[in-house]
Automatic annotation (TrEMBL):
GO terms for biological process: phospholipid biosynthetic process. One of its GO terms (molecular function) is metal ion binding. It comes from Bianquea renquensis. PROSITE patterns: DAGK. SMART domains: DAGKc (SM00046). This is YegS/Rv2252/BmrU family lipid kinase. PANTHER family: LIPID KINASE YEGS, SPHINGOSINE KINASE. It comes from the Bacteria.
Length: 304
């Protein structure tokens, strides 16, 4: 009998996923799989576990956690000798990437859909040698997931991110950014930028035409704007009309070079799938269809 591996972060999101372990084991046993479970105790141990594990009889690896946990497991799998499909259970706070795979937030429904083992090959990003599956960015608001209090995040969810982000506004300074993509160079003053796979970050659908398997990532940069202009832009984001705004730079490419001469020291570090990433400058490549993901095809975001 083949096995599946379940890696879970007990501190992710509302921390309730631990009560679903028996349900996961039962569902996959009915589907014909034995289950190995690994409980994360420290940052990096899920990737380390995968690199040491025998995956020769493993049908799939599943991770229950937030975007940071998913990133860790993606990096582990991308560096493993055996190529094993990945399934994602949305057990974090934002769950931007899990939503792009078409899965509901209710654990029982999600687990039963995952057991269908529908698979699609999706693109994986690589920034300065580190893999990422959903988003890489820097600037205003982009590092709030790293700095917000964990207890507060677990208590009030996404609102903790918004409160932390609002606290950055008084001391923030726009920065000059240079972006090279598709043989063109773009330079301007920005307040933030994101390079996206699914198109979603922080609960917002920022790149409306993004697809997980088109061989391209989307660059979305917001130029220097006044506070009233930012308010109007947020309204346009909610309507999905922001990419037409003159303050937004939107590009699609499989390769980006991004640098800044004057970004604040505390924002020079990028955010990669909700975790601390490399310092600017950044070189980002897209690895087309490099990872097999278990998906819910009915609601999947892919190229037509």
């Amino acid at each position: 009998m083949q096995e599946v591996i379940l890696l879970y972060n007990p501190k992710a999101g509302d921390t309730y996923f631990r009560f679903e372990l028996d349900e996961f084991i039962a569902v996959f046993n009915t589907a014909g799989y034995d289950t190995r479970i690994f409980r994360s105790r420290a940052k990096g141990d899920m990737a380390a576990y995968l690199l040491k594990a025998d995956l020769s009889n493993v049908a799939a690896v599943f991770v229950a956690g937030g975007d940071g946990s998913i990133n860790e497991v993606v990096n582990g799998l991308m560096n493993c000798k055996h190529k094993v499909p990945l399934g994602v259970i949305p057990a974090g706070t934002s769950n931007d990437f899990a939503r792009s795979l078409g899965f509901p937030s209710e654990y029982e429904k999600c687990i039963n859909l995952l057991a269908n083992m529908q698979m699609e090959d999706v693109d994986v990003g690589c920034v300065n040698g580190r893999y990422f599956i959903n988003v890489c960015g820097a600037g205003l608001f982009t590092n709030v997931s790293q700095t917000v209090n964990i207890d507060l995040k677990n208590l009030i969810g996404k609102m903790a991110y918004y409160l932390k982000g609002a606290g950055q506004l008084p001391s923030f300074r726009p920065f000059k950014l240079r972006v090279e993509a598709n043989g063109e160079v773009y330079e301007d003053n920005f307040i933030l930028f994101l390079v996206l796979n699914s198109g979603s970050a922080g609960g917002f659908k920022l790149a409306t035409d993004a697809a997980l398997d088109d061989g391209l990532y989307d660059f979305v940069g917001i130029r220097q704007v006044s506070l009233p202009e930012m308010t109007l832009l947020l309204v346009r984001m909610l309507k999905g009309e922001h990419l037409k705004d003159k303050s937004v730079l939107h590009l699609q490419s499989n390769h980006f070079l991004i640098s800044s001469e004057n970004i604040q020291d505390d924002l020079r570090e990028s955010d990669v799938d909700g975790e601390s990433g490399p310092l600017l400058p950044l070189e980002i490549d897209v690895k087309p269809k490099a990872l097999s993901l278990i998906v819910n095809r009915q609601n999947l975001i892919v190229a037509e």
